[in-house]
Amino acid sequence: MSRVESIELSLIEMPLVRPFRVSFGTSTGKQCVLARVRLGGVDGWGECVADDGFPGFSGEWNEGAWVLLRDVLGPALLAADDVSSDTVEDLLRFVRGNPMAKATLIDVARVPEANVYRMPVLYSTKLCPLDSPGM
Length: 135
Known about the structure:
27% of the residues lie in helices and 30% in strands. A three-stranded antiparallel beta sheet has the order 1-2-3. Strand 1 and strand 2 form a beta hairpin.
């Protein structure tokens, strides 16, 4: 049984290695919300991949995700008695939609279990400048 001991949110901005062009504009940086969560004595990090500034590409944006993480999702996990990869999605199910904000915390719930088995934790996002083909 693991309890969430703390949740710390940060808003960061990273420059892109090269401009990211799509039909509705060009980006030269990526702003995102990071969550540092202490769970079961282990620190884990999650990244919210919502849009910068306003909901353009998807229905989620950083400011909205920040408020949801700070005022709703984070407190729900802090109040829970048992948080694990098996329980975290059910604990957050009371909020409809917002998959990017939820994923910020869901991924972190895997960290203590991976640490016990000395397994690498793989994320679909990176905390480094975006430099993959097609980006």
